[in-house]
Amino acid sequence: MNTSLIAIGAAIAVFGAIGAGIGIGMATSKAVEAIARQPEASGKINTALILGCALAEATAIYCFVIALMIIVMLK
Question: What is the pLDDT of residue 1?
Fold first, then answer.
């Protein structure tokens, strides 16, 4: 198979990581805003933030693994 098509397929698979990065950035900004408004709830906010960021990072890792699978399997 053509090497450039494999590279394009892997690049498209990694585009999911862009959404994860945007999601983590938005979640962090909202968490900081919430802590600034209610400092006494910072423990609960941090817990929810860590859990949400972990899920978003898992999505990015899945995209990366799929991209690697495309490269390895189609060579």
Answer: 67
**What residues make up the domain containing 19?**
3-73
Are 70 and 9 a contacting pair, CB within 8 Å?
yes
Amino acid sitting at position 50: I
If one counts every other C-beta atom within 10 angstroms of the C-beta of residue 37, the result is 9
pLDDT (tens place) for every residue of the chain, 75 residues total: 688 888 888 888 888 888 888 989 999 999 999 999 999 999 999 999 999 899 888 988 998 999 888 889 887
Give the span between the Cα atoms of 25 and 27, in whole angstroms: 5
Taking the C-alpha atoms of residue 33 and residue 39, their distance in angstroms, rounded to an integer, is 10
End-to-end C-alpha distance for the chain, whole angstroms: 7
Number of domains in the chain: 1
Q: In this structure, what CATH number is given to the domain that contains residue 15? A: 1.20.20.10
